[in-house]
Amino acid sequence: MPCAHTADLTGEEPAPATPEGCAGCLELGVRWVHLRMCVACGNVGCCDSSPYRHAETHFRESGHPVMRSYERGEGWRWCYLDRALV
């Protein structure tokens, strides 16, 4: 079954809130493994392989389920609610 949460996304993606990296990790002074960006609001967080999993924390706090890779050359999206690539 296709992800219904992408239907809530309208138009152009927002600009990254912190283009330099994961806001939470930058604040803590730690490094991340990979970056993800919320396609609803532009929040940039670290992936689930990173120690603090800030992208998932953003999903849980905001309710924004769809993130995309914020890595150069990657364009895939992930839905936390459906636990699937979209």
Structural class from helices and strands? alpha+beta
Helix content estimate: 10-25%
What gap, in angstroms, lies between the N and C termini?
11 Å
**Individual helix count:** 2
Strand order of the largest sheet: 2-1-3-4-5
Largest sheet: 5 strands, antiparallel
Number of strands: 5
Residues in β-strands, percent: 15-25%
Q: Oligomerization state of this entry?
A: single chain
Could you list the spans in which at least 5 consecutive residues all have pLDDT below 50?
none
Give the overall shape: globular
Q: Could you report the average pLDDT, rounded to the nearest whole number? A: 92
Which SSEs are present, and which pair or pack?
Blueprint: H1 23-28, E1 35-38, E2 44-46, H2 54-62, E3 66-69, E4 77-79, E5 84-85
Antiparallel strand pairs: 1-2, 1-3, 3-4, 4-5
Concise description?
The chain has 86 residues and is an alpha+beta fold. The protein has 2 helices and 5 strands; from the N terminus they run αββαβββ.
What does this structure look like?
The longest helix has 9 residues. The mean pLDDT is 92. With 86 residues, the protein is α+β, with helices and mostly antiparallel strands. The chain is globular. The chain has two helices and five strands. It has a five-stranded antiparallel beta sheet with strand order 2-1-3-4-5.
